[in-house]
Design a protein that fits this description.
324 residues; D-Maltodextrin-Binding Protein, domain 2; 10 helices
């Protein structure tokens, strides 16, 4: 049940095309910006801040770092900005999630996350179903029963359509026998999902284990998690599967670079991010939030994205978010 750590590093591949990137000896020299394509306060911010904290303890990272938010399109607006950056840009990275890949699959004519250079997969995680602590929905079976009796009586909320939190809910409603297109679902971003539940605008939400802070404060109740097995960070939360619903839906967080970032800069980040995920502060966060650290860099991350795209294509077709 402990968060597993698997480190696989590919220091070959992902060669940038051209650009006047700094040499390995004097990189980095400027402030490093991590782009977030989502509203402040959500899981992406948590991942970026945790990564920055770990990097700040690295003697090789001597420049300031910060976050710039450019929300929209499940991270693809920020991705397009990064993708259109001047040739040789090496001081901006984007940390994003599976949501950017699923949105790319749903909108193939828009800018694609795969047009960026994959730098590193940092970790995987799962979605949890929450209700308010004062809700009469005590278990996931209660949610299923209400949904079956009257789908319009419940409002669900989570990430954008195609996000892992949305896919977890869609897989759940399908397992219950209610097509997702009959469900009232609010696609939200950042901390908006938690606010929707707190404010009574949603009856059920799907989000990360960072929302367990509301359980600890007595505001929320956690009903199910989309992992295959219970996770150490929330040992009392049953899986959907053990509750009788075949729902397993993971997510991941990864770092991308501009298409023309030079190889010395890429090599620097392959190594620095590997050290970051092994840092004590990152490992402590992984334990707290149920992250499964699974580091893949360069070509290995690119291969992982190809496999994810093929798997997600089928899942999105099944729940009607893209046409077959």
């Amino acid at each position: 049940m402990a968060a597993a750590t698997s480190v696989v590093v590919a220091l070959t591949g992902c060669q940038a095309a051209g650009g006047d990137a700094a040499s390995e000896a004097d990189y980095p020299t400027d402030r490093i910006t991590f782009l977030s394509g989502f509203e402040p306060g959500g899981g992406i911010d948590l991942a970026i801040n945790t990564t920055i904290q770990a990097l700040k303890a690295d003697p090789a990272v001597t420049v300031p770092m910060g976050i710039d938010h450019l929300p929209g399109g499940s991270g693809l607006i920020a991705a397009e900005k990064l993708g259109r950056s001047p040739e040789g840009t090496d001081d901006i990275l984007q940390l994003t999630s599976i949501s950017s890949l699923t949105t790319s699959l749903q909108k193939p004519d828009d800018f694609q996350i795969t047009e960026l250079t994959p730098v590193a997969l940092l970790f995987k995680e799962y979605s949890t179903m929450y209700v308010r602590a004062d809700s009469d929905l005590q278990t996931v079976d209660d949610v299923a029963r209400r949904l079956s009796e009257d789908a319009s009586s419940l409002t669900f909320a989570g990430g954008s359509l195609g996000s892992p939190s949305n896919l977890a809910i869609a897989r759940f409603t399908t397992a219950v026998g209610v097509p997702f297109d009959q469900v009232s679902y609010l696609p939200l971003s950042g901390g908006e999902t938690e606010l929707a539940l707190l404010g009574g605008n949603a009856d059920v939400i799907s989000g990360g284990l960072e929302s367990m802070q509301f359980v600890e404060k007595g505001d929320f109740r956690a009903l199910a998690i989309s992992a295959a097995e219970r996770v150490a960070a929330a040992p009392d939360v049953p899986t959907y599967t053990e509750s009788g619903y075949e729902v397993v839906q993971g997510s991941w967080r990864g770092v991308f670079a501009p298409p023309t970032m030079g190889q010395p800069a890429l090599d620097f980040w392959y190594a620095a991010l590997e050290r970051a995920v092994q840092a004590d502060s990152f490992q402590q966060a992984a334990q707290q939030y149920g992250w499964e650290v699974d580091y893949l860099a360069g070509d290995d991350f690119a291969d992982f994205l190809d496999e994810e795209a093929a798997s997600l294509q089928g899942a999105l077709e099944t729940i009607g978010l893209i046409n077959s």
